[in-house]
């Protein structure tokens, strides 16, 4: 475990929270937080998103994210490797002649330095000014409005809220913005933030989901005026089974409302919801088969 991951884990455990609880609080997958704590950078997404995850995680835990970001690798993802400042990549051994030459060079340099400082006319030491302290990163405010209103707005994979939303204190740089709403296509773009920004996003309606039509099995349509026909019209949903008097199955299923089935007599019809099945025999309306939800079996032609 690297230093960054150790500090994250200790801060989380000090609050008595599990990875699952933190993942739910941040609206991020648990695997992302595990990879940050275990320094498995090759399992993280691209660097822009990964730095955003680290920044938000540290802030929620009460840690200063800047020292952690300074140690964070510039590249993450499947091809980033797993080397950090605490775990340098392995090096191949150098040949003996290289070490011999290096020793000779160091001895020569040491002798030259000794002669320089031992000389009575040695030059005065030159004072080098220390480098200026690093400046704090600039922060900006991002405001997002959407059409339709109330869409969910994410920045670097973290939920900012429902639009319109205003997020102050965002560090300048490249940030990944995503907007989602039910019934609309998701919108995603990369923002280069250098100053306060107001963004208006109009979502595109998602195309309707097409459903395949249902083809009824074994219907045997005949003209409704046929005096020997039994016509079943579905006025609601009901399970139906149609057989011959000898028990041969002609149809069984749950037809869609409005479906019309027609069979030559004699047939036996059983319905699970008789009130949804209207019967016509020889073109004459016989009414519905029975009461709602009370399965019934009818034989056509009817017997006295």
Describe this structure in words.
The strands form 4 sheets. This protein has a 4-stranded antiparallel beta sheet. Strands 11-8-13-14 form a 4-stranded antiparallel beta sheet, with no helix packed on it. The chain has a 4-stranded antiparallel beta sheet with strand order 10-9-12-15, with no helix packed on it. α2 (19-26) packs across α3 and α4 (47-60) runs antiparallel to α5. Helices cover 24% and strands 28% of the residues. Among the domains are: 3-71, 434 Repressor (Amino-terminal Domain) (Orthogonal Bundle), CATH 1.10.260.40; 139-202, Immunoglobulin-like (Sandwich); 229-300. It has helices spanning 3-14, 19-26, 30-38, 47-60, 65-71, 96-118; strands at residues 139-147, 152-155, 158-162, 165-171, 173-180, 187-193, 197-202, 229-234, 240-243, 249-253, 260-264, 267-271, 277-281, 284-288, 296-300. It is of the alpha+beta class.
């Amino acid at each position: 475990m690297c230093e960054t991951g150790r500090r994250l884990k200790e801060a989380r455990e000090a609050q008595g929270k599990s990875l699952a609880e933190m993942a739910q609080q941040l609206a991020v997958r648990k695997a992302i937080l595990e990879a940050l704590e275990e320094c498995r950078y090759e399992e993280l997404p691209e660097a822009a998103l990964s730095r955003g995850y680290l920044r938000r995680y540290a802030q929620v835990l009460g840690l200063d994210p800047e020292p952690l970001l300074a140690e964070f690798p510039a590249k993450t993802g499947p091809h980033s490797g797993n080397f950090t400042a605490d775990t340098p990549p392995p090096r191949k051994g150098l040949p003996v002649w290289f070490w011999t030459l290096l020793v000779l060079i160091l001895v020569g340099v040491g002798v030259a330095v000794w002669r320089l400082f031992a000389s009575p006319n040695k030059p005065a030491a030159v004072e080098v000014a220390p480098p200026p302290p690093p400046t704090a990163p600039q922060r900006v405010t991002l405001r997002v409005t959407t059409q339709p209103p109330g869409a969910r707005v994410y920045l670097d994979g973290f939920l900012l809220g429902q639009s319109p939303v205003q997020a102050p204190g965002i560090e300048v740089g490249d940030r990944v913005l995503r907007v989602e709403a039910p019934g609309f296509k998701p919108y995603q773009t990369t923002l280069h933030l250098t100053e306060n920004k107001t963004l208006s996003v109009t979502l595109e309606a998602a195309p309707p989901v097409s459903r395949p039509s249902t083809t009824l099995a074994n219907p045997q349509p005949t003209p409704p005026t046929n005096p020997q026909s039994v016509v079943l019209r579905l006025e609601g949903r009901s399970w139906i089974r149609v057989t011959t008097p000898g028990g041969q199955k002609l149809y069984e299923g749950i037809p869609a409302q409005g479906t019309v089935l027609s069979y030559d007599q004699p047939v036996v019809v059983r319905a699970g919801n008789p009130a949804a099945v209207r019967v016509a025999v020889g073109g004459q309306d016989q009414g519905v088969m029975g009461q709602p939800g009370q399965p019934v079996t009818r034989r056509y032609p009817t017997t006295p």
